[in-house]
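Structural prep section.
Before we set up the soaks we want a predicted structure of the protein with flavin-adenine dinucleotide in place, mainly to decide which crystallisation condition to try first. Input record follows.
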Amino acid sequence: MTHAQNISILRHILVIALIFFDFEGYARDAVAGNVITKNLKNIAITNHKDITTATKEFQTEFKFCDINKALGLYNIVPMLIIGSGPAGLAASLYGVGGNVRTVVVHGPLPGGLLTQTTEVENWPGHALIMGEDIIEKLQNQIQGLADKYLKKQTMNLGIVDFLFDTITHIDVSSWPFKVSTDQGLTLNALSIVIATGSSHKKLHVVGENLPGVTYCAKCDAPFYKDKEVVIVGGGDSAAEDAMQLARHAQQVTILVRKNKLKASALMQMRLHEYANIKIMYNVEVQEVLGDVHEGVKAIKLIDHVENNSFVVSTDGVFVAIGHIPNSDLVKDFVKTDEHGNIELKGRSQTVVMKDEFAHVQGVFAAGDIADKLYKQAYSAGGYGVGAGIDAISFLTNIGFNPKMAHILEKNMFKV
Ligand SMILES: Cc1cc2nc3c(=O)[nH]c(=O)nc-3n(C[C@H](O)[C@H](O)[C@H](O)COP(=O)(O)OP(=O)(O)OC[C@H]3O[C@@H](n4cnc5c(N)ncnc54)[C@H](O)[C@@H]3O)c2cc1C
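Run finished without errors. Recording the tokens verbatim:
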């Protein structure tokens, strides 16, 4: 018996043992390339015939993504990551680490929202770091890993490309997915990670771009020690931000457009525990006053009950009127909630499709785009890690193994 045959027999014994102990994930990984269904644990496997049955079931499940459909296509991207914020970059780390050719599309804001802030005090491992430095370090790490892999092997599997372009359309009616870009490219993506983040709702008033108008109390509160600040908004986020700020600022004023807060009763109760938080009702921001050098100085408000305008001096304006997830690109085929956040199912990065797209697999989401709660850089990175791992696992399951990567290599997209 040859060495290869021995290995093969040992591998089958290992798989059956793992299945017996219900370690379905390990079983799948152990047979990477030999496609075994995730439903294996429901099938009593006693001999090789049963493995064949299980394999067939698996192939039915992933029929839509028959790897042979990629043959003959050009501009193939095994792992396409849309967005280069912490979520997209973290996912790409696993694409490269998983030895899969990965393309990260920067979109309208290369590096994502962190590039719009200065000092970040809650990125683990750094007492204080600039937002842009986090992104630069991540990119260097990813590129470094890809370069290391490139040196070690003859094929360019684990390479990463950063594409300065914006995705304009994704067609999931066939697989590989046809993805169009602003600059006229058509990419054939085997798997997609959507990491397009979200944008803060803006006030749309004069002065809102002045230094001192900010959207992240969690990030900027320490910079307002003993200062007077206002928060615009009446929901849970505004209440949460107020409490965050009250630990640093001397006076915090919440500006509410209606005659009551939208925040939960519990939040409202908690607010009352802070002597330095006050609430002004029935007021709407008309203008932020100040200058580009010295920043915010005051805010002009309209009182809807008294029907008059007045000015309140302040050192900072925190806007907490909600987020708009950047999900326009995918909301025709991906299920989103009433706010536009992508809904996830099962393993948290799996995207739930609308019924007519139920057969579509291989599209994952991560970061603020799918996060109703935290909207923080590190949590976005964490979700990105999960999406990267899920995408790799999907590629393995459909039979995208090193052999297939080698066959497709010459037709893969390169920047
Ligand atoms: C001023 C400010 C300060 C902040 N400070 C902190 C802080 O101190 N600590 C903290 O933890 N968090 C902070 N945050 C929040 C943090 O930045 C976000 O939670 C985090 O960036 C979310 O990461 P993400 O990868 O999900 O999305 P984003 O960082 O928003 O990245 C989204 C990416 O998607 C791309 N994109 C969008 N549409 C397309 C498209 N059609 N095609 C291709 N690409 C597309 C964008 O160009 C961008 O690269 C701050 C946010 C702001 C605005």
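Observations: The chain has three domains: 3-61, 69-199+324-411, 213-321.
Flagged for discussion at group meeting.
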